[in-house]
Amino acid sequence: MRAPVLEDGEERRGLLGPLAYVVFIAIGSLWMFWFAASLGPAAKAQAEAACRALEPELREGPAPDFTLQDRAGQPVSLADLSGKFVVLNFWATWCEPCIREWPQLDRLAERLEHRDDVVIVAVSVDQDQTLVAPFLARMGLEQTGVRVLWDPTGKLHTAYGSEKLPDTYFVDAAGQLVHAYVNVRDWGRPAAHNCVESMLAR
After folding, report:
1. Is 106 helix (H, G, I), strand (E, B) or coil?
2. How far, in Å, CA of 171 to CA of 79, rounded?
3. Exposure string for 116-155, b = 16+ CB within 10 A, e = fewer
4. For residue 129, which of 109, 153, 147 has the smallest C-alpha distance?
5. Are the CB atoms for 178 and 170 separated by under 8 Å?
6. I need a labelling partner for 151 at 20 to 30 A (CA). Which of 18, 98, 161, 199 fits?
7. How far apart, in whole angstroms, are the C-alpha atoms of residue 84 and residue 117?
Protein backbone atom coordinates (compact mmCIF):
# COMPACT_ATOMS: atom_id res chain seq x y z
CA MET A 1 0.00 0.00 0.00
CA ARG A 2 1.41 3.36 -0.98
CA ALA A 3 1.99 5.89 1.82
CA PRO A 4 -0.04 9.09 1.49
CA VAL A 5 1.88 12.03 0.08
CA LEU A 6 1.77 15.12 2.30
CA GLU A 7 1.36 18.48 0.76
CA ASP A 8 4.04 21.10 1.63
CA GLY A 9 1.72 22.92 4.04
CA GLU A 10 0.81 19.73 5.88
CA GLU A 11 4.48 18.76 6.17
CA ARG A 12 5.38 22.16 7.63
CA ARG A 13 2.53 21.93 10.14
CA GLY A 14 3.74 18.49 11.18
CA LEU A 15 7.22 19.83 11.87
CA LEU A 16 5.97 22.87 13.77
CA GLY A 17 4.61 20.80 16.65
CA PRO A 18 7.95 19.31 17.82
CA LEU A 19 9.77 22.56 17.02
CA ALA A 20 7.34 24.60 19.14
CA TYR A 21 7.82 22.12 21.99
CA VAL A 22 11.62 22.48 21.83
CA VAL A 23 11.37 26.29 21.77
CA PHE A 24 8.95 26.22 24.71
CA ILE A 25 11.35 24.05 26.76
CA ALA A 26 14.31 26.29 25.89
CA ILE A 27 12.47 29.47 26.89
CA GLY A 28 11.25 27.82 30.10
CA SER A 29 14.79 26.72 30.99
CA LEU A 30 16.16 30.20 30.36
CA TRP A 31 13.43 31.73 32.51
CA MET A 32 14.13 29.31 35.37
CA PHE A 33 17.87 30.07 35.15
CA TRP A 34 17.18 33.81 35.25
CA PHE A 35 14.78 33.40 38.18
CA ALA A 36 17.28 31.32 40.19
CA ALA A 37 20.07 33.83 39.46
CA SER A 38 17.88 36.72 40.56
CA LEU A 39 17.25 35.04 43.93
CA GLY A 40 20.94 35.34 44.90
CA PRO A 41 21.04 39.14 45.29
CA ALA A 42 17.57 39.11 46.85
CA ALA A 43 18.63 36.57 49.49
CA LYS A 44 21.78 38.56 50.19
CA ALA A 45 19.80 41.78 50.57
CA GLN A 46 17.38 40.03 52.92
CA ALA A 47 20.29 38.77 55.05
CA GLU A 48 21.79 42.25 55.24
CA ALA A 49 18.42 43.69 56.26
CA ALA A 50 18.00 41.10 59.03
CA CYS A 51 21.41 42.04 60.48
CA ARG A 52 21.10 45.81 60.10
CA ALA A 53 19.81 46.34 63.65
CA LEU A 54 23.08 44.89 64.98
CA GLU A 55 25.08 47.50 63.03
CA PRO A 56 27.57 45.25 61.26
CA GLU A 57 30.68 46.45 59.49
CA LEU A 58 30.88 44.74 56.10
CA ARG A 59 34.04 42.71 55.55
CA GLU A 60 35.30 40.66 52.65
CA GLY A 61 38.23 38.46 51.75
CA PRO A 62 39.60 35.28 53.29
CA ALA A 63 39.36 35.06 57.07
CA PRO A 64 42.80 34.81 58.73
CA ASP A 65 43.55 31.16 59.41
CA PHE A 66 44.36 29.90 62.88
CA THR A 67 45.22 26.89 64.96
CA LEU A 68 44.43 27.39 68.66
CA GLN A 69 43.93 25.21 71.72
CA ASP A 70 40.51 24.28 73.05
CA ARG A 71 39.71 23.78 76.73
CA ALA A 72 41.07 20.23 76.59
CA GLY A 73 44.34 21.42 75.08
CA GLN A 74 43.50 20.02 71.63
CA PRO A 75 44.34 22.02 68.50
CA VAL A 76 41.44 23.50 66.55
CA SER A 77 41.94 25.27 63.23
CA LEU A 78 39.68 27.31 61.01
CA ALA A 79 40.12 24.56 58.41
CA ASP A 80 38.54 22.13 60.90
CA LEU A 81 35.41 24.29 60.74
CA SER A 82 35.29 24.38 56.94
CA GLY A 83 31.76 24.08 55.60
CA LYS A 84 30.26 25.72 58.69
CA PHE A 85 29.21 29.31 59.24
CA VAL A 86 31.44 30.57 62.08
CA VAL A 87 30.48 33.25 64.61
CA LEU A 88 33.96 34.13 65.92
CA ASN A 89 34.13 36.15 69.13
CA PHE A 90 37.23 37.55 70.89
CA TRP A 91 37.12 38.14 74.63
CA ALA A 92 39.12 38.12 77.90
CA THR A 93 38.30 37.36 81.52
CA TRP A 94 39.42 40.87 82.56
CA CYS A 95 37.22 42.61 79.97
CA GLU A 96 34.08 43.94 81.68
CA PRO A 97 32.02 44.29 78.46
CA CYS A 98 32.97 40.70 77.60
CA ILE A 99 31.53 39.56 80.91
CA ARG A 100 28.22 41.18 79.98
CA GLU A 101 28.27 39.71 76.48
CA TRP A 102 29.23 36.10 77.31
CA PRO A 103 25.76 34.95 78.48
CA GLN A 104 24.37 36.38 75.25
CA LEU A 105 26.76 34.23 73.20
CA ASP A 106 25.71 31.21 75.21
CA ARG A 107 22.05 31.98 74.50
CA LEU A 108 22.76 32.29 70.78
CA ALA A 109 24.49 28.89 70.85
CA GLU A 110 21.39 27.43 72.54
CA ARG A 111 19.12 28.88 69.87
CA LEU A 112 21.28 27.37 67.12
CA GLU A 113 22.10 24.03 68.74
CA HIS A 114 19.79 22.17 66.33
CA ARG A 115 21.89 23.28 63.35
CA ASP A 116 25.06 21.47 62.32
CA ASP A 117 26.09 24.11 59.77
CA VAL A 118 26.96 26.87 62.26
CA VAL A 119 29.37 27.08 65.19
CA ILE A 120 29.90 29.76 67.83
CA VAL A 121 33.57 30.16 68.77
CA ALA A 122 34.88 32.35 71.61
CA VAL A 123 38.64 33.00 71.58
CA SER A 124 40.15 34.05 74.90
CA VAL A 125 43.14 36.39 74.62
CA ASP A 126 44.08 35.91 78.28
CA GLN A 127 47.79 35.27 78.74
CA ASP A 128 47.06 32.69 81.44
CA GLN A 129 44.82 29.85 80.24
CA THR A 130 44.09 28.74 83.82
CA LEU A 131 41.87 31.81 84.22
CA VAL A 132 39.39 30.62 81.61
CA ALA A 133 37.81 27.60 83.36
CA PRO A 134 37.18 29.41 86.68
CA PHE A 135 35.67 32.33 84.76
CA LEU A 136 33.21 30.04 82.96
CA ALA A 137 32.40 28.29 86.25
CA ARG A 138 31.59 31.59 87.97
CA MET A 139 29.33 32.49 85.06
CA GLY A 140 27.58 29.09 85.15
CA LEU A 141 28.82 28.38 81.63
CA GLU A 142 30.78 25.16 82.09
CA GLN A 143 28.37 23.33 79.76
CA THR A 144 28.12 26.12 77.17
CA GLY A 145 27.55 25.21 73.53
CA VAL A 146 30.14 27.84 72.58
CA ARG A 147 33.50 26.39 71.55
CA VAL A 148 36.11 28.10 73.70
CA LEU A 149 39.62 28.51 72.28
CA TRP A 150 42.73 30.24 73.62
CA ASP A 151 45.15 32.64 71.93
CA PRO A 152 47.59 34.08 74.50
CA THR A 153 49.45 36.09 71.85
CA GLY A 154 46.46 38.22 70.81
CA LYS A 155 47.91 38.22 67.29
CA LEU A 156 44.87 36.55 65.75
CA HIS A 157 42.61 39.23 67.19
CA THR A 158 44.59 42.02 65.55
CA ALA A 159 44.83 39.99 62.33
CA TYR A 160 41.05 40.17 62.15
CA GLY A 161 41.32 43.93 62.27
CA SER A 162 40.52 45.18 65.77
CA GLU A 163 42.21 45.80 69.10
CA LYS A 164 38.93 46.30 70.96
CA LEU A 165 37.21 43.69 73.10
CA PRO A 166 34.80 42.15 72.68
CA ASP A 167 34.37 41.90 68.94
CA THR A 168 32.76 39.30 66.73
CA TYR A 169 33.26 38.23 63.12
CA PHE A 170 31.09 36.25 60.74
CA VAL A 171 33.00 33.78 58.55
CA ASP A 172 30.99 31.96 55.90
CA ALA A 173 31.23 28.28 55.01
CA ALA A 174 33.84 29.06 52.34
CA GLY A 175 36.11 30.78 54.87
CA GLN A 176 35.31 34.31 53.72
CA LEU A 177 34.78 37.23 56.08
CA VAL A 178 31.27 38.66 55.91
CA HIS A 179 30.64 40.96 58.91
CA ALA A 180 32.44 42.47 61.88
CA TYR A 181 30.73 43.56 65.11
CA VAL A 182 33.03 45.66 67.24
CA ASN A 183 31.98 46.01 70.89
CA VAL A 184 29.10 44.37 72.74
CA ARG A 185 26.03 42.99 70.94
CA ASP A 186 22.90 41.39 72.38
CA TRP A 187 23.53 38.02 70.77
CA GLY A 188 20.87 36.34 72.90
CA ARG A 189 18.01 38.35 71.44
CA PRO A 190 15.75 36.98 68.67
CA ALA A 191 17.05 39.69 66.30
CA ALA A 192 20.58 38.27 66.55
CA HIS A 193 19.32 34.73 66.02
CA ASN A 194 17.37 35.89 62.95
CA CYS A 195 20.48 37.64 61.67
CA VAL A 196 22.56 34.46 61.80
CA GLU A 197 19.73 32.36 60.34
CA SER A 198 19.39 34.81 57.46
CA MET A 199 23.12 34.58 56.73
CA LEU A 200 22.82 30.80 56.57
CA ALA A 201 20.03 31.14 54.01
CA ARG A 202 22.07 33.31 51.62
Report:
1. helix
2. 12
3. eebbbbbbbbbeeeeebeebbeeeebeebbbbbbbbeebe
4. 153
5. yes
6. 199
7. 5
Which of 115, 141, 129 is CA-nearest to residue 74? 129
Beta bridge partners of 177: 171
What is the tens place of the pLDDT at every residue in 137-184? Answer: 999 999 999 999 999 998 999 999 888 899 999 999 999 999 999 999
Q: How many whole angstroms separate alpha carbon 92 and alpha carbon 146?
A: 15
Given a contact cutoff of 8 angstroms between Cβ atoms, the answer to whether 200 and 85 are in contact is yes
Taking CB atoms within 8 Å and a gap of at least 24, the contacts of 127-136 are: 127/152, 128/152, 129/69, 131/93, 132/71, 132/93, 133/71, 135/93
Sheet of 118-124: strand order equals: 57-58, 177-182, 167-171, 85-91, 118-124, 147-150, 67-70, 75-77
Q: Does this model's pTM top 0.85?
A: no
The pairing of strands 118-124 and 147-150 is: parallel
Helix H or strand E segment including 199: helix 190-200
Nearest to 123 by CA among 96, 102, 100, 137: 102
Q: Tell me the angle at which helices 8-51 and 190-200 cross, rounded to the nearest 10 degrees.
A: 150
| Cβ neighbours of residue 70 closer than 8 Å, sequence gap 6 or more | 76, 147, 148, 149, 150
